[in-house]
Amino acid sequence: MPSRLAPAKVNLTLHVTGRQPDGYHLLDSLVVFAAVGDIVTFVPGAHAGLRITGPLATGVPQGPENLIARAARLIEAPAAAFILDKRLPASAGMGGGSSDAAAALHLLAECRGLPLPTRAALMGLGADLPVCMAAPAPCRMRGRGEWVEPLAPLPQLGLLIVNPGVPLSTAAVFSALKIRDNSPMPDVLPDWSDADDFCAWLADMRNDLEPPARRLLPVIDELLKAIANQPGCRLARMTGSGATCFGIFSDRNALRRAAETMHAPGRFVAATETLNGDVQLTRATT
Fold this sequence. Notes:
- By secondary structure, the chain is α+β, with helices and mostly antiparallel strands.
- The protein contains nine helices and twelve strands.
- The protein folds into two domains: 3-150, 2-Layer Sandwich (Ribosomal Protein S5, domain 2), CATH 3.30.230; 158-285, Alpha-Beta Plaits (2-Layer Sandwich).
- Helix 1 runs parallel beside helix 2 (96-112) and helix 7 (210-216) crosses helix 8.
- The longest helix is centred in the middle third of the chain and has 17 residues, at 96-112.
- The chain is globular, with a radius of gyration of 18 Å.
- 43% of the residues are buried.
């Protein structure tokens, strides 16, 4: 049965640059995908449905409201059957549901010869759908999420991904945002020579949702400090609207040791790396 990795989305930067009259926020974000994620499997010839397995399956909706089922209906494939091996925590700021839906759409397009949905249709499922459709390529995402620009391969980064095991409402984080017209990234992104050059540039960028998320959920503040204090960590930041945080490492041994140190009951911890087109799986612990 054909399967596809639905990789974790990591916002290396996330600048909130405005708010539309309808309440939607405008973003400018540098997005990469990690070599860890859920696994979506298409089941040919099976009755329509979605079966969810995996270490983090508890609480994930299996009915028509699941984004995989909704995505299948976008291209008139209501009879599609899938298995979702859930390995990423839900409501974690890693685009898990959107990445699952994107993987399902790619599988349907490949296996049944169906056309992919339009950008407008994808936006109806969520702002992360267009960028997740471009995975695993690094991208720049702008507007409400509808403008996605694939980038050339970036320097390879080791990533320590840590979620505290506490969900955080995206709506609540945006509501707590005090300044909504922040500066975007530069119009033209630099040509980074190596990981050192890239990380130095990233340090001058931001995730504008990090301060309100830290106020709403103080454990994020504690988590970021703990990651930053790990030997070999070059940058610690929150991804998306939280509560997942990440650290960038250049040394694999330091990354492995940091993952061992950060492991704690209830946490999701993954020692992984960024993808530039090659998909591979790494171990995650919960």
